[in-house]
Amino acid sequence: MALSLDYTCFLKGGPQGDVGVSSAALEAAEAAHGRRLDAMLAQRANGTIGFYDLPDDRGPLEQCLEFAERTRGRYENIVVLGIGGSALGTLALHASLSPPLHNIKNRSTDRPRLFVVDNVDPVLVSGVLRTANPGRSLFIVISKSGSTAETMSQFLLFLEALKTSVGDAWRDHVAVVTDAENGYLRPFADANDLPSFIIPANVGGRFSVLTPVGLLPGACMGWDLGALLDGAATGRDACLRRDFRSNPAAIYAACHHDLDRNADINVQVLFPYSHRLRLLADWNTQLVAESLGKTTASGERVGPTPHRALGATDQHSQVQLFAEGPIDKAFTFLRVLEHTDDVVIPQAPTGLEPLRYLGGKTFGQLLDAECRATNLALVEAGRPCCTITFPTVSAETVGEWLMWMEIATAYGGELYGINAFDQPGVEAGKVATYGLMGREGFESEKARVEGTPLTDEGSVVG
After folding, report:
1. DSSP, residue by residue, 53-67
2. Pairing state of beta strands 174-178 and 196-198?
3. For residue 85, what are the CA distances in angstroms to 129, 131, 211?
4. 130 three-state secondary structure
5. What letters, b where the CB count within 10 A reaches 16 and e where it falls short, cover 114-142?
């Protein structure tokens, strides 16, 4: 059973009232759908954008599975060194497809622990260094360029720890995911005969979860990657339909775009009601922000602001703002119909009679009731909401959702008139970091940054 999208409460005149997408706006989006779809398909056909075809090419999956099988039982820990698109997808898949509290429960090579070192905060880096014995770990280094300061600084540290721990056998503990030909990691991997896996040149980092970026850690963890790709293929085919009204990504993108441009509803809140789906929101935040937050050719600054909430946790921290604060947010609820490992709530004992309504129900029923109730409360408060329903959380449904969001983002680029696949704003910060850290060739950047006062006036000392 596939995912479903209910966007009724995105529409003006629906249960949420006059705030929403007009029928005229939806008809205009429908009329332009063929042209926008053709532009996207042209990029696919000429090889410029490659994420559409990842579910069909099973060669990388087979390579990852062969490596995982050959090294099965060798490692207690899988340590991923990466940041942004090289980490967020794996984190989301780990939360969705591994057992809850996996790292706490598992201490054997049969079910290795997974650590994703997605920052250079010394507390995180040193904590992983102390927890994951280098001699019992596989380090997967993920960087397309091999020059990402965060990832490569991590690698330098763990490589030194490996050499200290196992000497020349360090090569048995490193795998590389990088570009096929370019970048610093490719010649290093070749010179040291390291297992290496390819990030296609036409797949950007935030679209790369279905490449070895996500597949290699997943193969080592034993996730059902065939089902993940099958689900992604199902999602891809649905989101490339010519029929606008049956295309979930096209409708989803068009509704959000109209709410932003014509109702000043710029904040997109993704609200999963599932602990297992919670990190999909982190992955989606990068996807939307980095793809659609741009300056157009005419100089206009565009793009929505993605936001994360978790049901039922954030009913107690954010829903007050959502219901009575500014009407600048659109909500996407992720609802799960069937939760695995559901638990029955016991009957209330004497003295707690008011709680007897809970007895005999399951935690899954309670979570679903909270999802539906919060959705209704926001709708009645005049907030536009939609619901994406998962029959259950599985590799297949997660893969389908990933492709829905990636293609919706590509549609968003067409709607805003920007390139959804570059990230010039990120590059500026990278260059400034190179200068401050003393990278050769960036001396002028170091002088520029150090000569720019950021805290001259208006500072307070405690």
Report:
1. GTTT--HHHHHHHHH
2. parallel
3. 22, 24, 11
4. helix
5. bbbbbeeeeeebeebbeebebbebbbbbb
CB atoms within 10 A of CB 454: 6
Name the helix (H) or strand (E) containing 388. Answer: strand 385-392
Taking the C-alpha atoms of residue 238 and residue 248, their distance in angstroms, rounded to an integer, is 7
Whether cis (ω within 30° of 0) applies to the bond prior to 149 is no
Return the sign of the alpha-carbon dihedral for residues 15, 18, 21, 26: positive
Each residue of 52-92: pLDDT tens digit?
999 999 999 999 999 999 999 999 999 999 999 999 999 99
User: What tokens were used for 269?
Assistant: 């809140």
Q: Which residue has the tokens 């090419």?
A: 57
Note whether 357 and 374 are within 8 A (CB). Answer: no
Question: Which stretch of DSSP H or E encloses residue 258?
Answer: helix 248-263
Helix (H) or strand (E) holding 6: strand 4-6
Q: Which residue from 183, 264, 251, 198 is spatially nearest to 407, judged by alpha carbons?
A: 251
Placement of tokens 């208006």 in the chain: 458
Name the amino acid, one letter, at 356.
R
Amino acid at 171: R
Given a cut of 90, is residue 461 above it in pLDDT?
A: no
The sheet with strand 385-392 has its strands ordered as 4-6, 385-392, 329-338, 267-272, 305-308
Strand partners, 115: 79
Which region holds residue 193: left if phi is over 0, alpha if psi is between -120 and 50, else beta?
left
* Interatomic CA distance for residues 374 and 311, integer angstroms: 9
Which whole number is the average pLDDT over 385-397? 98
- Which domains are delineated in the chain? 4-41+228-416 (3.40.50.10490), 52-224 (3.40.50.10490)
pLDDT single digits (tens) 23-45: 999 999 999 999 999 999 999 99
CB 97 within 8 A of CB 274: no
Active site residues: 290, 316, 430
Q: How far apart are CA 22 and CA 35, in angstroms?
A: 21
Place of tokens 């929101």: 281
Q: How far apart are CA 261 and CA 258, in angstroms?
A: 5
In DSSP terms, 307 is beta-bridged to: 269
Q: Is 200 exposed, middle or buried (0-12, 13-18, 19+ CB in 10 A)?
A: buried
Q: How many CB atoms lie within 10 A of CB 198?
A: 19
Secondary element (H or E) of residue 452: none
What the block records as the tokens of 73 is 């039982």
Distances (CA, A) of 318 to 315, 323, 329: 6, 9, 12
